[in-house]
Amino acid sequence: MYYYSETRNILRLAIRFSLLLCGMVFINRKNSKDAHNVINKAAQTINTKKAKIVISPEGTRHGGETLLPFKKGAFHIAIASQAPIQPVVASKFKFLDHKTYKFDRGNLVISILPVIETAGLTTEDLESVMSRAYEAMNKEYNKLNQSQN
After folding, report:
1. What pTM did the predictor assign?
2. In this predicted model, what pLDDT tens digit does every residue of 99-127 receive, in sequence order?
3. Which distant-in-sequence residues (6+ apart) come within 8 Å of 76 by Cβ?
4. Contact 144, 91 (CB under 8 A)
5. What is the bridge-based pairing of β-strands 96-97 and 102-103?
6. Mean pLDDT, the chain, whole residue set
């Protein structure tokens, strides 16, 4: 068991290091001040460098039958930068055992949904944008998972 846990930790560090080299920014959700600073910097980067960002709006991985509730950070960034939201939905990772992190053979189906525009929106529109995105993405998530059965 010791060997397995050490190997898993080394793999996690290697993946994290690779993502950092690709420019990935991790948000410490336990420190709200730090998270807000990262979100504000992301919005500025989108505007000044015409950057694209990828955010998992659920904030974590899971193996559930429906999407988890969305966190607000991605939507704050989109509205603050007035950048469009491009929803991308991946089917359930049926090839991954979420308890042991062991992979098996399987397929992953990805669907790209229509863009959700944020031009002209303010933070007052945040909840409605989140709701629209969640409804569209959860409907597609369920559709993708049914097609894999």
Report:
1. 0.73
2. 766 767 777 788 999 999 999 999 999 99
3. 39, 43, 123, 126
4. yes
5. antiparallel
6. 81
